[in-house]
Amino acid sequence: MEQIDDRQEFVWFLGNHSGKHRHFRCWALKGDMSNLPLKKTAKPEWLKVKAPGGQNYHRIKDMLGKLNLATVCQEARCPNMGECWAGGTATFMLMGEVCTRGCRFCNVKTGNPKGKIDNREPEKVGFSIAQMGLTYVVLTSVNRDDMEDQGADHFGRTVEVIKKNDPNLIVEILTPDFQGDISLINRVVDSKPDVFAHNVETVARLTPSVRDPRATYQQSLDVLAQVKKHDPEMYTKSSLMLGLGETDEEIMQALKDLKAVGCDVVTFGQYLQPSPRHLKVVEYITPEKFQYWKQVSDDMDFLYCASGPLVRSSYKAGEFFMKGVIDKKRQRAEQELEL
What we know:
By secondary structure, the protein is of the alpha/beta class.
């Protein structure tokens, strides 16, 4: 793709249920484009992390390569990859490395997989998890608008295989929006993950210029609402990136919107530009400001909030907290059965 104006060029793929795709180039994105500065802002000290390494890190990396499995840690260039892998934690990305959408903050490849999928992936992921000795696993995926069910059954089957292999393993999923299709959302919910996460990513005003045109702010809220409607006991979770030009008032409104659809857990992290062709950082948010949003979220009675410059949706501290909550929930259920 030739380089035009970084504020305007955007490529994405539109698919339909017949699997056909058309390739479009959009020269003028809808929405507020004022968050796209021309000059690069220097990265502050608090965002600098050590290069990944260590015996466990290399063991996991080698194993994933041999099994031809993808992790969002690698594809999204997560700044916590070294820390998490060294501690034996990884987030698996299902259904390949090519996404049918082209969000302007995301480093995952955009393209047309043409319905290609590894039907043995659920078993491969289950084997990998067994080798890693995890107690809490996170599954996410690319968008698969090229598939009739957008990959919902594949996602659900992966959860079911993992749960069958180890009923005690806690499974968190971070899903696409499935174009808001209620039946597809319900299929994934019925696979019984312990935590269902879907990210709004940014505030309402910036959504059209940050996310793929098919990913709307309201649709993401509707996904979270449907999860709670179908299974009120399931924990739901969402995440916002800060530093894209959002205002405090807009962040507060996003929190109110998430609370209104019953979202249990919220996370805040600093947006980091993964490459020169992606959205530029408007502002580096201070650790103190992230702490402020954690306090606000706690005061609003969210079950949990992880907030910090290097926090991502799948964040180890949040996983530890959720593991404690879910373990207690399971213990209560067992005690009730004994009565």
